[in-house]
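Hi all, long-time lurker, first post. I run a small reading group and we've been trying to get comfortable going from sequence to structure in the token notation. Rather than ask abstract questions, I figured I'd post a concrete chain and ask someone more experienced to write out its structure so we can walk through it together at our next meeting. Sequence below, copied exactly:
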Amino acid sequence: MKDGPEFDIAGFEARHSAARYAAATQALAVAAAPATTPDSAIATDKGMVQYHVIAETPTGSQYAAIMQENADNLMGMGGLIHGYMTANYPTVDSQLLDINLWNTVIGHLPDVAVGPTVTKQYSNTVAGTDLAGTFLQMLAKAKVAPGAKIGTDFGTWLEAMGQLAFAAHGAGQTYKAITCSYLCYLVDNGAGGFYDYGAIVLREVDITQDFMTYKGACQASLGIQVEVQFTEITSPVQLSRIRKGGPDFQLFQQLVNANATAAFSKAANFFDGRNTPQADLKPYV
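-- Answer (accepted) --
Happy to help. Here is the structure in token form:
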């Protein structure tokens, strides 16, 4: 009796990847991705949208080239999502401030495993000068070293975002935000080395009280009561599959759009935390 032909696993995976990328190309297509991000797509009286890419750079390490490529690839993903959302939802409203919409769009990206939805709450009294650092550590899912450049840069950027928010909002003690963060870290593997971790973290954030007290608070030493509720979805990215030499490298390069990535990098509501020294961040992953 003859054995049947062996199952072609590699061929099956290749066909599956090709189908996933074809579907993503169609789902994320826009007639013309905006070259600039209008203020209405950043903040209105309804809420705000923020994007972040935070990635470690291990200078002089065997992992440096890998981490640089990972950061570039996350920027490519960010460009696709930013271009799609800005083109299709040019004004921040209740629809754009719904995390489920964002999760559906993120779910079109191949090599991303959409994670579970988790609800969290943060309540604490924080010195105004520590406010930016508190928010950064929440967004980055990492402890930030005292005096790290990323902390200073984020504080400056957050103040600019606050000016846009308060100009659009004007009054009222509650506010809402959607944050879309792309993270890339080296994580200790417990055996003397590291592995690279990548994820897209979505948050639907509700500032439930005293929103107006945040105005100018970053410059104050007095304590600010922070009351925040948020829904969070962390979706790991299979970075090794889309790097050079990975099975989906060519498909990913065909999916990303250089113009969309460039527009994303220049958006006022994008915080660029790439090239952060590894010693400045201790990830909670």
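A couple of things your group might point at:
The helical segments are 9-27, 64-88, 99-106, 131-140, 149-169, 239-242, 249-255, 258-266.
The first helix runs from residue 9 to 27.
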